[in-house]
Design a protein that fits this description.
The chain is mainly α. The chain folds into 2 domains: 40 residues; 233 residues, MetI-like (MetI-like fold). 79% of the residues lie in helices and 0% in strands. It contains 12 helices and no strands. Helix 3 runs antiparallel to helix 4. The longest helix is centred in the N-terminal third of the chain and has 39 residues. The chain is globular.
């Protein structure tokens, strides 16, 4: 009995120590990024456009939201149908195959997606470096995360609600659209927000597909687009202070956006738990 309590105490202490270490690492990263950005921040950085090493970040901020938003719109449509197929229509074998496919897509390195997007969207389909090519490539990476989160959200809907809907004569599609998707909506939105935060932090894919634009894109194809991660990548390697300042401010903006999306997603998850 004494040894069991000792092991439990040691495991609890080890878990607490690791959690404290992770929290300290997170706070250190946040402090470094935001303090560095505060020291170098100039108001015109947010109000003017630039070429990643001079000027401002307005084109990169707008481009990041355009890329992430369009990628989310594309991936959400496909991912929700994949999740519905896995959860409701596919048999055990097909469902297992689809889950394995989704998991494999999630494990593919971003550089591979970038190469695929460059060869298929930029070259073969003739889109050039563009908003659409970058968004399509990002959506391929976002689909598996959104598909699994949607499947999980539908699985968390109480079975009694599903059984009651079938008992009232609802068809399978009515159960999916009016019960599963409706009551799973907060968790689906939460998963979508987390997926956007993942997409907003990508660089490798966009270097091969979106290029860079010191202004704003004029169309979906054959018009390059700026994004914040490019500024971080380009500016931090420069020897002069101003490009490094742009990199720090762009990093702070990215981290701030991700934190806001994370807080909103956690709030939605908490509200769903309270409702349940």
């Amino acid at each position: 009995m004494g040894m069991r309590r000792l092991r439990d105490a040691l495991m609890g202490a080890a878990g607490l120590a690791i959690s404290a270490l992770l929290l300290a690492a997170l706070l250190l990263v946040l402090a470094y990024v935001f303090y560095g950005a505060a020291l170098r921040f100039e108001p015109e950085m947010l109000l003017t456009m630039g070429n990643a090493t001079s000027g401002g970040l307005l084109n990169a901020i707008v481009g990041t939201w355009l890329l992430s938003g369009l990628a989310l719109a594309i991936s959400a449509l496909l991912a929700i149908f994949v999740a519905i197929d896995i959860a409701q229509y596919a048999g055990a074998r097909v469902g297992s195959l689809l889950r394995a496919t989704v998991d494999t897509m999630a494990a593919i390195p971003a550089m591979v997606y970038g190469l695929f997007g460059f060869l298929v969207f930029v070259i073969y389909l003739g889109m050039g470096y563009s908003l659409l090519a970058g968004s399509l490539t990002l959506s391929l990476m976002m689909i598996p995360y959104l598909a699994r989160s949607t499947e999980t959200a539908m699985g968390n809907v109480p079975k009694e609600l599903v059984a009651a809907a079938y008992a009232l004569g609802a068809s399978r599609w009515q159960v999916i659209s009016r019960v599963l998707l409706r009551f799973g909506r907060p968790l689906i939105i939460s998963g979508a927000l987390l997926t956007v935060s993942i997409g907003a932090g990508e660089t490798a894919q966009l270097l091969y597909t979106a290029g860079w634009n010191p202004g704003l894109p004029t169309w979906f194809t054959h018009s390059q687009v700026g994004y914040l991660t490019y500024v971080v990548w380009a500016g931090i390697n420069q020897p002069t202070p101003y490009p490094q300042g742009l990199a720090f401010v762009a990093s702070a903006l990215l981290v701030g956006m991700i934190l806001v999306l994370l807080l909103i997603s956690k709030w939605l998850e908490g509200r769903e738990v309270r409702r349940a």
